[in-house]
Design goal:
It contains five helices and five strands. It is of the alpha+beta class. The protein has a five-stranded antiparallel beta sheet with strand order 2-1-5-4-3. The longest helix has 49 residues. The radius of gyration is 39 Å and the shape is rod-shaped.
Length: 211
């Protein structure tokens, strides 16, 4: 029969090994916890930094996942849609435009080509206010090269359009005045010629030098 009893020295040796293994595991665990804390802090700092950059963007900014659902917005996006960040996140980006089908096509184009620039669209604010914008977007990829989000910036061009209309009106008014003065000058020359002809008819000298 095999003696299953162990000596005191063997028991102490086994306990020392168990304690040693436990110490190593605890050290590894503590290191992992510390690494996790550092990673979480780095992630928090990166999130705060990225959000500060987003908020620093004066134009409306929206991030969208590959399903077309809004994941983040800045204050300018809240203002142009008249909706809060909480109301916007989790909803479909295309719902806020007058032509949702166009958004779907553009979105697919961005996913395929990586970007799109200055595409004219119109944002519909609560079905009442309409804002003309230029749509710009690019993809954001992970380390494996897979698209995880689409970053969108839209530029409000309503004020530009208003300025263009005002400029167009001013240009037309200047053209009208220019035509008036040109016609007036032509008429003045004709009148001077008629006066000169009448003076010559009655034996007098010309009064106006006209070519």
């Amino acid at each position: 029969m095999i003696d299953q009893q162990i000596t005191r020295e063997e028991l102490l040796t086994k306990l020392k090994k168990i304690n040693h293994d436990y110490s190593q595991l605890k050290e590894l665990y503590d290191n992992d916890i510390e690494k996790l804390k550092l990673m979480e802090e780095s992630l928090r700092i990166a999130t705060v930094y990225s959000n500060s950059l987003i908020e620093a963007t004066l134009d409306p900014f929206v991030s969208i996942n590959t399903d077309g659902i809004i994941t983040n917005v800045n204050k300018a996006a809240e203002n142009i849609t008249n909706l809060s960040r909480k109301e916007l996140i989790g909803t479909f980006f295309s719902d806020y435009f007058t032509e949702p089908e166009k958004i779907s096509k553009i979105f697919q184009n961005v996913l395929e080509n990586g970007f799109v620039t200055n595409y004219p669209l119109t944002i519909c604010q609560s079905g009442i206010k309409f804002t003309d914008v230029l749509f710009n977007a690019c993809v954001f990829k992970n380390e494996q090269g897979s698209v995880i989000e689409v970053m969108v910036v839209v530029r409000d061009i309503n004020e530009c359009k208003i300025a263009e209309i005002a400029l167009s009106k001013q240009t037309k008014e200047l053209e009208r005045l220019n035509r008036y003065f040109i016609d007036r000058e032509i008429r003045m020359v004709e009148l001077k010629k008629e006066v000169n002809e009448l003076l010559q008819k009655y034996g007098q000298e010309k009064r106006y030098p006209v070519s």
